[in-house]
UniProtKB/TrEMBL annotation:
This is Methyltransferase. Pfam families: MT-A70. One of its GO terms (biological process) is methylation. Keywords: Methyltransferase, S-adenosyl-L-methionine, Transferase. InterPro entries: MT-A70-like (IPR007757), SAM-dependent_MTases_sf (IPR029063). One of its GO terms (molecular function) is methyltransferase activity. It comes from Epidermidibacterium keratini.
Length: 191
């Protein structure tokens, strides 16, 4: 499927950071070059929104990725966490969700501040509040890339399609395999 008007992405950045990363113990990482070359622009509608998660260490790369995918970053939304994290210079207690657009893609809600405050959960678990926030601002259909858990479901919630490395995926991206692709292969197909 293509023509997603809103895409949420939390790339598994393989960016060297002093003091170790730890993410590779939870999921496979991707190089910046591999992330940049994903055909995300082919999945998006002409008028679309992108919500791209970055850490403080990957903030600069996030702008490059959004641009490579055909989007222009309009504003960062900062997640203020309730606890201090690690850091070589300052103690990290924030992550950022870059909001980007392509084409003519106005927002549905204009009163969202540039920050949210939500508790930290397990490793790389973004706040559940992100879905309601995104649905309030951005139109569907929705796609989450690099999904690590299913989005919340409910009769009053829009459906999110997912592509991810830790849950079954609804879509396939040529050249970018995830574990659930083996379930979708026809018998006798190549892995």
């Amino acid at each position: 499927m293509t023509g997603y008007r809103t895409i949420l992405a939390d790339p598994p950045w393989d960016i060297e950071q002093r003091g170790g990363r730890g993410a590779e113990h939870h999921y496979d990482l991707m190089t910046l070059d591999r992330i940049v070359h994903m055909p995300v622009s082919d999945l998006a509608a002409e008028d679309a929104h992108l919500w791209l998660w970055v850490t403080n260490a990957t903030l600069r790369h996030g702008y490059d990725v959004a641009e490579a995918w055909g989007f222009t970053v309009r504003s960062p939304l900062t997640w203020v966490k309730f606890r201090l994290g690690l850091g070589n210079y300052l103690r990290n207690s924030t992550e950022h969700l870059l909001f980007a657009t392509r084409g003519r893609a106005p927002v549905q809600f204009r009163s969202q501040p540039t920050w949210i405050q939500a508790p930290v959960q397990d490793h790389s678990h973004k706040p559940e509040e992100q879905y309601a926030l995104i649905e309030r601002i951005s139109p569907g259909p929705y796609l989450e890339l690099f999904a690590r858990r299913p989005p919340p479901q409910g009769h009053d919630r829009p459906r999110w399609h997912v592509w991810g490395n830790q849950i079954d995926s609804d879509i396939q991206i040529p050249g970018y395999r995830v574990p659930s692709d083996s379930h979708n292969q026809p018998r006798g197909g190549t892995p």
